[in-house]
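Structure (tokenized):
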């Protein structure tokens, strides 16, 4: 039974090495809501690595789509709460995504 547990742990480790996780935060803010500087400050305090940040203006609203890496699911949930706490009017949605890292799997 111990052998199976060790073997399963090795399989999980191998999977973790083949995949990387990113999180995309979709924020909808009114024109008078916190600006990108406040969002950036919140990101820095979370130690998340920003991979991509897209800002769209639609009418009187700004839509931010921020993709980050380097954090786990629990940290992503905490970051979502931190964004939402900047103002009660901010709408935040987060996508947790696993990406297959083909470079890692080919080299094995």
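Design, position by position:
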């Amino acid at each position: 039974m111990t052998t199976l547990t060790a073997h399963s742990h090795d399989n999980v480790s191998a999977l973790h090495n083949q995949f990387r996780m990113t999180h995309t935060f979709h924020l909808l803010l009114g024109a008078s809501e916190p600006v990108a500087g406040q969002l950036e400050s919140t990101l820095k305090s979370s130690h998340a690595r920003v991979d991509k940040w897209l800002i769209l203006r639609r009418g009187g609203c700004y839509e931010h789509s921020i993709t980050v890496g380097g954090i786990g699911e629990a940290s992503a949930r905490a970051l979502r709460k931190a964004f939402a706490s900047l103002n009660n009017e901010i709408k935040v949605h987060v996508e947790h995504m696993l990406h297959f890292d083909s470079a890692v799997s080919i080299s094995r």
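Reviewer-requested clarification: Residues 1-7, 104-108 have pLDDT under 50 and may be disordered. Residues 20-106 form a domain with the Alpha-Beta Plaits fold (CATH 3.30.70.260).
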